[in-house]
Amino acid sequence: MTNTKLLEKNYSPLVVRKYIMKGWPMYVGVICDLDLSDLDDVVNKPRLKKNASIQDIRNYVGRVSDKVVTTYDKVKRNCVEGVAVLYYVDKMAVSSLYGDFMVHFPCKSEFYSILNMLPHV
Question: Contact, 17 vs 39, CB < 8 A?
């Protein structure tokens, strides 16, 4: 089993990945020790129906977050420290935060700082 924690390191590294869903950008941030090589498969499992309403999009973002948490927690219980999903759809942004992103400002700040940087890289 892969373990990305460094010796004497207290927290797992943050990974932020960009996806294009139905032509719109979605960013997924994950704080977790496990091998995230299958993250694309996990994120692509939940489906968004055609002509989705605002509530459908909110539900979809929540399902993506839940899928990430449940998938990796099956491998190693409580290994997912945080998940952040931000989906921009037609002049609307929907986000879902879990774990450390909900309660620790530095985690949230790091995620949104990375999002601000990405278009300029």
Answer: yes
Distance between CA atoms of 39 and 30, rounded to whole angstroms? 9
Across 6-35, average pLDDT? 85
CATH of segment(s) 14-120: 3.30.1130
DSSP β-ladder status, 80-89 and 14-21: unpaired
Residue 31 in contact with residue 84, Cβ under 8 Å? no
Question: Residues 92-107: pLDDT tens digits?
Answer: 999 999 999 999 999 9
> Could you tell me if 27 and 14 are in contact, meaning their C-beta atoms sit under 8 angstroms apart?
no
Domain boundaries, the chain: 14-120
